[in-house]
């Protein structure tokens, strides 16, 4: 077998060039396929993560809404807020809640909590607390009023024997609480204290007691 080649012939070089081009084309094709596969996998992973995040957010929102309803439906809240009552505590409802909270001067957190429900007139479970607080405040007010009345009765008995027309021997101190004219006028009274109605004298005396305590009655106020 002869190993001699015709170096003048272009055939061997042409075959070599075609083989080289084929290898380069194949390699380029493999690279493109590999790149497309990596891109597709990354996109799928992003989509899955995004879907999971949305699902988690929806679950959290739904769970929060369920916890804060306290017997009041989301639909009722939406009606109060003047938005579409679809029963879904989504972004629209949350935004409306925040707007309402801002106007009502309460914490702007978008959560339909007891304070927000109370402000909407849907207190539900918190109504009892509000009523209890109101009763407590009324009781304290009544207690304070009772103490004031008892103090005034004691002062009146000591100063004048409880007589609204009493006048001191020198004419300086007048009425149930023995006002001098200057003190009487300074606290909103007019005319002669001893000539005023007993209710008016009680009112002025209560005002004076609230402002200065028993100081105006150094003896009878002890």
From TrEMBL:
One of its GO terms (molecular function) is hydrolase activity. Residues 148-220 form the Resuscitation-promoting factor core lysozyme-like domain. Residues 20-37 have a biased composition (Basic residues). Residues 83-120 form the Peptidoglycan binding-like domain. It comes from the Bacteria. Residues 1-37 are annotated as: Disordered. Coiled coil: none annotated. Keywords: Hydrolase. The keyword Membrane does not apply. SUPFAM superfamilies: Lysozyme-like, PGBD-like. Pfam families: PG_binding_1, Transglycosylas. Belongs to the transglycosylase family. Rpf subfamily. This is Putative resuscitation-promoting factor RPFE. It comes from Patulibacter medicamentivorans.
């Amino acid at each position: 077998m002869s190993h001699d080649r015709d170096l003048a012939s272009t055939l061997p070089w042409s075959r070599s060039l075609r083989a080289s081009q084929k290898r380069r084309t194949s390699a380029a094709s493999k690279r493109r396929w590999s790149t497309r596969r990596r891109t597709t996998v990354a996109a799928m992973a992003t989509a899955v993560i995004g879907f999971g995040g949305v699902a988690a957010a929806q679950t959290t929102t739904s769970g929060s809404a369920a916890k804060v309803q306290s017997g009041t439906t989301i639909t009722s809240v939406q009606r109060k807020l003047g938005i579409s009552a679809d029963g879904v505590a989504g972004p629209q409802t949350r935004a409306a809640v925040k707007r309402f909270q801002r106007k009502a001067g309460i914490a702007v957190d978008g959560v339909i909590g007891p304070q927000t429900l109370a402000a909407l007139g849907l207190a539900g479970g918190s109504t009892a607390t509000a009523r209890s607080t109101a009763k407590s405040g009324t009781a304290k007010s009544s207690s304070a009023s009772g103490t004031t009345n008892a103090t005034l009765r004691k002062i009146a008995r000591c100063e004048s024997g409880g007589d609204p027309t009493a006048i001191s021997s020198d004419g300086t101190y007048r009425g149930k609480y023995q006002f001098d004219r200057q003190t009487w006028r300074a606290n909103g009274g007019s005319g002669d204290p001893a000539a005023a109605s007993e209710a008016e004298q009680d009112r002025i005396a209560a005002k004076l007691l609230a402002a200065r305590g028993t100081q105006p009655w150094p003896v009878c106020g002890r």
